[in-house]
Specification:
Blueprint: H1 3-17, E1 24-25, H2 40-48, H3 53-65, H4 68-80, H5 85-98, H6 107-115, E2 124-125, E3 128-129, H7 130-133, H8 147-162, E4 166-167, E5 170-171, H9 177-181, H10 198-212, H11 222-230, H12 232-254, E6 256-257, H13 262-271, H14 274-290, H15 302-309, H16 311-317
Parallel strand pairs: 1-6
Antiparallel strand pairs: 2-3, 4-5
Helix pairs in contact: 3-5, 4-5, 4-12, 5-13, 5-15, 6-11, 8-10, 10-12, 12-13, 12-14, 13-15
């Protein structure tokens, strides 16, 4: 082999064998001394129910504390997705503290799950079914095999080509894709102990099918989607997959290992779209480095702040009995 190609080949082999630059671990705890503001919608919902955030927190805490079988399910699914179980606990606690009250018993979720099988509803908007909508030419570039890439692409097309616009004579709301097409009963609707929205479940279905061996979800079968996100035996896998995807996105895109900070993973579970948020943080930190400033660590929101603030109490739920 000539010298130049040989040197190139050796360099490429060395690069392939060299370890990747390690992601920067995000330290435990909150970056904010005080809890960031809670959105008005959460406050209004809590007031309407004549309760408090602390009362709602206690309710989900007690459900977890008094149901060792549920804790066992959480531990098992966390192991399947190679994440610490505290991330799942944090996501559940945040959702039920600031969104809806937890049911008193896990059995209620199973009963609700079965009820969706006999319900008549579709994923649609303005009389247009989601299957017809994604057949529009704007979605032609979203021909992908992986469900996460596929539905993330469709979500991005919605944001750039339809959200808040009038297209071919049809006016589309200035709202999230998931709220417009995937919540047929009321806007902002999520269900189950994980409070997943259907679009997130559709994104994660390939990963869950591969890891947990559950049947793949189909947007043309909305009853199955809702049954899955209501059934604790299935939805916990989707919660874990969503958290794992966020951890991977921040490591691969932003260069941060957030696996040791459940307040950050809970924040991303609450906000969604971790890839876009990781890209934004990476771009900001590139600019900060260029101008001689220290990079900014990922920040918790009000939801993740609570998880970190209550961490000792939440970790006690997972301690061996």
């Amino acid at each position: 082999m000539p010298i130049r190609p040989l040197l190139i080949a050796l360099c490429l082999a060395w690069l392939a064998a060299a370890p990747a630059v390690a992601a920067t671990p995000v330290p435990p705890g909150n970056r904010n001394a005080e809890q960031p503001p809670v959105p008005g919608a959460s406050a209004r919902r809590t007031q309407a129910l004549k309760t408090t955030y602390e009362a709602k927190y206690r309710k989900i805490h007690d459900l977890l504390k008094n149901d060792p079988a549920l804790i066992g399910k959480i531990r098992a699914v966390a192991a399947d997705y190679d994440i610490a179980p505290i991330h799942i606990v944090g996501a559940l606690v945040g959702e039920h503290s600031y969104n809806v009250d937890a049911y008193d018993r896990l059995q209620t979720y199973y009963v609700k799950a079965v009820s969706y099988l006999n319900s008549r509803f579709a994923f649609a908007h303005g009389g247009e079914d989601i299957d017809d909508f994604i057949a529009r030419p704007q979605f032609a570039g979203c021909d992908m095999d992986d469900s996460y890439a596929l539905w993330s692409c469709r979500e991005a097309v919605w944001e750039t080509s339809f959200r808040g616009r009038t297209v071919e004579g049809s006016a589309f709301p200035d709202d999230r894709f998931s709220a417009v097409f995937f919540q047929p009963f009321y806007a902002g609707q999520t269900f189950g102990i994980g409070q997943l929205n259907p679009l997130t479940a559709l994104q994660m279905t390939d990963r869950v099918a591969e890891t947990s061996k559950l049947p793949k979800l189909d947007h043309r079968q909305p009853q199955d989607v809702y049954r899955t996100i209501m059934d604790p035996d299935m939805t916990l896998a989707y919660v874990a997959a969503t958290l794992k995807a966020a951890i991977e996105a921040y490591e691969e895109i932003a260069g941060y290992d957030i696996s040791g900070n459940p307040g950050i993973t809970a924040t991303l579970y609450n906000l969604g779209n971790p890839e876009a948020r990781a890209r934004t943080l990476a771009a900001e930190n590139a600019e900060r480095r260029r101008t001689g400033r220290r990079p900014r660590l990922p920040q918790e929101n009000y939801y993740g702040w609570l998880v970190n603030d209550k961490l000792e109490e939440l970790e006690a739920l997972l301690a061996p009995s």
